[in-house]
Structure formats: C-alpha cells, structure tokens
Amino acid sequence: xxxxxxxxxxxxxxxxxxxxxxxxxxxxxxxxxxxxxxxxxxxxxxxxxxxxxxxxxxxxxxxxxxxxxxxxxxxxxxxxxxxxxxxxxxxxxxxxxxxxxxxxxxxxxxxxxxxxxxxxxxxxxxxxxxxxxxxxxxxxxxxxxxxxxxxxxxxxxxxxxxxxxxxxxxxxxxxxxxxxxxxxxxxxxx
Length: 190
Known about the structure:
Blueprint lengths: L4 E5 L8 H16 L3 E4 L5 H12 L4 E6 H4 L10 E5 L2 H11 L2 E4 L4 H15 L7 E4 L6 H12 L5 H5 L1 E4 L2 H10 L10
Parallel strand pairs: 1-2, 1-5, 2-3, 3-4, 5-6, 6-7
C-alpha cells in the first residue's frame, strides 16, 4: 500500500541556520510532487511554517493539527486545506498519528524529539507498524544517532529496533525508503 500521507515533526523555530528552513520548504514541496499529503502541527512559524508553505507552493494538500491554546496565540497557519483545533498536546499527537501513514522528523527541539520518540516507542511496542524516520539535514541528528547506538551497546535498545528507524540525509531517498517500508494503519492507539 503506497504512503499517501506523512506526518512531519519539526521545529516551531527557524533555528540559526537559514539552510534548515529552506530544506524544510523543499521537503514540503517534494511531498507535494509525490502526491503525499502533509500532516503536521498546524503552525505558521519556524520550520513548521516552512514545510507547510513548501507543500502549498507545489500544490500539495496540507492538514494541520494544533491545540487551541496555540491557535489562540494566532500561531495557526491560515492557508491550510484542513486545520484541526484540539484541546491538548496529547490529542494533537494522537490525531496526527491517526492521519499519517508514516513519520518524518526534520530538525527541531525538545518537542520534535518527544514526538519522534513517542511514535518510535509506539512502533517498538507494536501499537502501529508505520515507518518512523529522520531526515538528517546537514548532520543535525548525528549526535542523537550516536547516543542511540550507545543505548544499544548498553543493553537498553535492541539493534533490530534501532534498525527500524529509517535515517537518510537525502530527501528523495527517504521518500523511496518510506514507500517500500512495511506499514499498515491501525485503528487503536495508546
């Protein structure tokens, strides 16, 4: 079954490197080029806004999910095809996961890491079989990947579970690998 929608986790900040923001924009445009619907956190700022703008600029479909508290601060993107306003961050993550066929983490901070690890944990526990991945732009995640290998060596993570995390530095190659990875939609989430 081909992947029709990808949930992208990324920073609500643009960070200090303008290259990361343009990479997020380009990744959104690439999803649109492949006919893949973007599911994301609904924001108009930072890398989140850039990935949405990229998809929209290339004619893609973009669905955002944002908590009401953030929407009230006028951080919601005004040009999306759908914007789901939910009550809590937990509802946001659950809704994004339900709508997606796969997950990609772009650069970001604590929130991005938390989303990546929660979804990756759910996969490890067989709550879903959707591919989880990292687009390692400019080596952003190199240190994290070294630490994850350390957790394997220390006996806290199995190598086959770590091998389940798709890591690529080239966006086209990442899309290829996601399309060939085993996945299925599940109706029940933790």
